[in-house]
Amino acid sequence: MTFKEINLPPKAPPKKSKSALKRIRQAERRRLRNQSAKSTLKTLSRKVESEVFSKNTEGARAALKKAISAIDKAAAKGIIHKNAAGRKVSRLTRLVNSLLSAQAT
């Protein structure tokens, strides 16, 4: 008999304890909350980029301020890593500063 010919009864799914079920519910709530927060960060970042590409300095500054605030809050809550937050802020700030320096010359 080969291995494929052996008919074993199907395995029953492992039983989950009350604490495991609670952790599953908590993880799902956190996943949805984090997903929403990350989506907001992406939207705010895109707003900054669109203001820069449309060469609107005041709009870019205002959008940058909102984006930085949201990114810092997300990092403080552990939604994104603090180094990732710093990298995002740095890139957006450089983008806005490039617009300002291009208009100054």
Find the CATH topology: Methane Monooxygenase Hydroxylase, Chain G, domain 1
Mean pLDDT equals 91
Distance between the termini: 82 Å
Order of helices and strands: HHH
**Which residues form runs of ≥5 with pLDDT under 50?**
none
Helix-strand category: mainly alpha
| DSSP strand tally | 0
What does this structure look like?
This protein is an all-alpha fold. The protein contains three helices and no strands. It has helices at about 20-55, 55-75, 80-105. The radius of gyration is 24 Å and the shape is elongated. The model has no long low-confidence stretch (mean pLDDT about 90).
Q: Would you summarize the structure shown here?
A:
This protein has 105 residues and is an all-alpha fold. The protein has helices at residues 18-53, 57-76, 82-104.
Q: What are the SSEs and their pairings?
A:
Blueprint: H1 18-53, H2 57-76, H3 82-104
